[in-house]
Amino acid sequence: MELKDMEAGRVLEHFETLSGIPRCSGDEKRISDYLRSFGEGLGLKSRQDEALNVIIEKPGSDGYEDHPPVLLQGHMDMVCVKEEGSDFDFGVDSLKLVVKDNELRARGTSLGADNGIAVAMILAILEDVTLAHPPLVALFTTEEEVGLKGAARVDGRLIQAGTLINIDSEEEGVFFSSCAGGVQVNFSRAIRRVPASMETAYELKVKGLKGGHSGLEIHHGRGNALKILGTLLYEVSDFIEIHSFSGGEKMNAIPKQAICRFNAGGDLSEMVEAYQRNFLEIYGNVDPDMNLSLKEIPCEKEVYSREDQDRLLKVLWEFNHGVNTLSQDVQGLVESSVNLGVLEESDQGVKIVSSIRSSVKALKEALAENLQTLGESQGFEVTLEGDYPAWPFDPDSRIRPLFLETYEELTGRQGRVAAIHAGLECGLLIDKIPGLDAISLGPNLREVHTPDEALDLKSVSPTFELIKRVLGRL
Fold first, then answer.
1. 426, 118 in Cβ contact below 8 A?
2. Judging by beta carbons within 10 Å of its beta carbon (0-12, 13-18, 19+), is residue 231 exposed, middle or buried?
């Protein structure tokens, strides 16, 4: 069965179209142009700002013209990750969509349902001339996945709305009413290379980890490939000479793999085998497929200087990745965390990219200060970017009880109100548009920000119908 013939087929048809347009974070020009043209093609007022955010306005339907406007919002970019060894080119190739067991996935890559499914739902609403609704403002933002950068550049004066429906959550029937704030922390250091003195060389790779979204899966205690490899190499740093080190793909994804090539003064195979056994004894329940792969390779003539190697490994060894504190008010909610996301090399040296999340501003600032102290103590330049506020719970929200009531009527099930440790754009938009009453929801997604990302097709239609029914009551 084709996607267009399933429940909510028009939504899925739009998603299929979006999957043929490149939209990695930072490469949104083509998808942004498409969305603006889509709105113009419907005869709707459509704007594209300097950050490539797109705003489309749709007048209220008959009888709803004078109702307060509603803001529908999702982000157009996606986290682009692929399976190891894949030659898929996100800048050129269309995603290869696959349906299996009532789930939609992309073959060998992330799916981009975070947040393409929101964009698809909003497009279906914009084109529907039979739908009863108040005046609508559709906002499609850019670079959400790299620090909510598009939302940060939205001109709130261009948006007249009293209610925000954000469609960037990942569990049907769960209505998010607050989220953590966050900031990206970057470490940079030039690397001086010197002649190698050791005559045996190895490639050591960590793979087989689950990884996952650093806001949604950080509490599962999954292994971080950079932390694992950095710790191992720190313990044998006197016996190796690094000539390349990299790992991770996105600052907001827990690294699934990392690789280091180095010269060594002896055979490390027994040590690596012992380290893997120890890891599996501790973390085998959450990451049973973790694998350390060691193979001999030709020697490199130049390696990191001893000082640069020691300083890099010291940072990785001391880096406090994972959950920092749990909420005292909401059982099981992560209050603050740090993700060691990416280590990359360039001609300029090495760069470490990490992200901090916290629902408490003072904790976010303290964690950033701790990381800055760590980096600077080892001679790294430390910079902060993409700082965004938390979204505080509003006890007087009007939209939240309306969604709960309507969801129970539609499905016969009770909805649940929750807070989320991941960052949502609601906090930024509330700051820009005074008086905005916000809620976040979405269909079931799993393993986002990984090649295993999957959309539960059975949850798409109830979520879409719920949004439409609520719009008819506003």
1. no
2. middle
Instruction: Tell me, yes or no, if 77 is annotated catalytic.
Output: yes
Which of these, 111, 113, 98, 106, lies nearest to 167 by C-alpha position? 113
Give, rounded to a whole angstrom, the gap between the first and last alpha carbons of the chain: 35
Per-domain boundaries in the chain: 3-180+390-471, 193-340
Distance from chain centroid for Cα 365: 21
Q: Rounding to the nearest 10 degrees, give the CA dihedral for residues 418, 388, 187, 299.
A: 50
Give pLDDT, residue 168.
Answer: 97
Dump pLDDT digits (tens) for 207-253. Answer: 999 998 898 899 999 999 999 999 999 999 999 999 999 999 888 88
What does the pLDDT read at residue 283? 83
In a 10 Å sphere around its CB, with 0-12 CB exposed, 13-18 middle and 19+ buried, how is residue 392 labelled? Answer: middle
pLDDT of residue 282: 83
Which of 16, 28, 57, 77 is labelled catalytic? 77
Distance CA 225, CA 215 (A): 17
For residue 462, give the nearest of 425, 416, 413, 426 by alpha carbon: 413
413 vs 444: CA distance, rounded Å: 15
CA angle 212, 214, 220 (to 5 degrees): 70
CATH superfamily of 3-180+390-471: Zn peptidases (3.40.630.10)
Q: In this predicted structure, what is the pLDDT of residue 284?
A: 87
CATH architecture classification, 193-340 = 2-Layer Sandwich (3.30)
In one-letter notation, the amino acid at residue 371 is: L
In the sheet that holds 454-456, the strands lie side by side as: 97-100, 103-106, 454-456, 445-446
Query: Among this protein's residues, is 144 annotated catalytic?
Result: yes
Q: What is the DSSP string of 309-333?
A: HHHHHHHHHH---EEEEE-SSSTT-
Beta-carbon neighbour count of residue 28 at 10 Å? 27
3-state secondary structure of 121: helix
The pTM score is 0.81
Catalytic residue among 28, 57, 144, 308: 144
CA distance 251 to 187: 12
Q: Tell me how far apart the alpha carbons of residues 237 and 216 are, in angstroms, rounded to a whole number.
A: 34
DSSP string, 11-52: HHHHHHHHTTS--BTT--HHHHHHHHHHHHHTT-EEEE-TT-
Peptide bond preceding 444 in cis form (omega within 30 of 0): no
Q: How confident is the model at residue 2 (pLDDT cuts 50, 70, 90)?
A: confident
